[in-house]
Amino acid sequence: MKEVKKCSLCGVAFTMESDAYEALSEYLESLRCNYRNSDDGEEIVADIEARIAELILSAQDRERVVGKPLVLNIIMQMGSADDISAADPEKKHPGGPRIPRRLYRDTENARLGGVCDGIGKYFDVDPVWVRLTLFLPLLLAMLRWVPFLYWTGPTLGNLFVLFVISYLIMWFAVPAARTARQKLEMNGEKITVRTIDQVTAATTAADPDALAKPIVAEVVSRLGQIVLILLKLLAGLLVFGLILSTCALIIGMFAVAIGGPEIVFPGNLGQLSTGVLVSGLLAALIPVILFIYVLMCLIASRKPRNKTVLAIFLLWLASIITVSCLAIREKTKGPLQHKYARFDRILESRIIIDGDTTSLRQILKEFDDENIIEETPETIHINVPSQGIKITVDKSQMELKTNHSK
To answer: What local confidence, expressed as pLDDT, does residue 210 receive?
Structure first.
């Protein structure tokens, strides 16, 4: 059995064979030596480590031991530092086949938040067309004086407002392409050591004056940042309200479970059983927790984890099924059991009729078609006229009195 070692790549833990670990360590060390004198060397190596971790996870599960053949294959795909040093700096390397693009905001070529540029890069179209599409409904709405366009004004105006709201939401939710690796993913280019080095070099060599924005664009960008901050504050207030709702639902669940349904629900809902109400409150609590999680991820500019969202959704689905089953079961109960399920202990009380010992539950079941149930704020009266049985249940004392006249 081969010796294994533990290692971490960009926060992801892996178990590797010792020879695979040594090969990867030598490769990363050669990259660090190559970029030691570069200001962006640490960022380049971090991007390469992140890409290596992605390639390992795309080839196998994290729990499996990483072998040397996989590591050597990944190193061959990424390229070595010697290849970059020996390459002609003026010759652009094609980087092999393109990879699926990822949606980022392109802040380098942005007019405001980089959303239109990011959408253009994602769909491989000129961002100018995306911007024109954004303002096209407003332009058409202004032409409503044209006879055959007058009726489209309100619709196009609402469509433009929807576009603006969508833009703000995407500005809030879509991350910006800041690192070399993210820029390559945005353009759909293969991520190798060479392409990462080219993007970093191009960014470093860019003229700072050429990247400077006009004064108007800078003012608009600042206003956009203020709007983004206000949206995050609004999301924070919404999270605070949802947290209060969560606390109220949890307190309600415990109050129903301990004190009975009538404490929280004094009306008709209080006549349901404890299990149905607790399950219903749980079914309402789970989506609130999901909304809190998603909003917190958006505020922190992080992507919600798919596994976490799926687990919460499955738990919510299970709670809905549980509530449905309990409600169906509650509906099939007898009259007293359905309406006064909280008096289960009284239903089991022993009653002596004509020398025979029975229970209130058995009487109601046996004479289900002819018993008469009447309720007052203090008592419940149950009559079985054919048998001359009159039973009075005291709600406050949880006691019953029996009168048998036959």
So the answer is: 43
